[in-house]
Amino acid sequence: MSKIFMACKEFANKFPNCSNGFIMCGLTGLGKTHLSLAIASEVISKGFTVIYSTSSEITRNMADRYFGHSTNSDVDYLNLIVESDLFILDDLGAEFDSSFNKSAIFDIFNSRTPLNRPTIINTNLYPEQLQARYGERVASRIFSTLDTFSFIGVDNRFRIGKKQ
User: If both were cysteines, with which of 9, 144, 151, 156 could 30 make a disulfide (CB 3.0 to 4.6 Å apart)?
Assistant: First the structure.
């Protein structure tokens, strides 16, 4: 875990001259979101744009806009994501499993990858589970461009709660 922490710290310190990003896989409560938000804070402090969203939120917003249910019809969520200096997608795999959502996730990575814009993904799923859920096209784009960090340990929320 200390190697992952150091890699994330280096990523934030060197931004934008860093890797294309990474995917953090592991069970809940291991610090993936906390670490992502710390990186976002450092990147923002340097004057760069960061979009942070859960997969459920971004796919819901994209679907609402696409199907005309949105009150924010002027907002092009895909373009905001593509143009951001850093995109953090939290909780990939927690969104409703639908062909539209899979397509939206594909569009995000298909649009950001050629631009070499860094992306951080947090998920409770492991690589085999992600490939089974999203298919070869999405898995290929994620795992060919992003480093994979596997989080192990005990849910910090339980551990912290027991100390009180």
Answer: 151
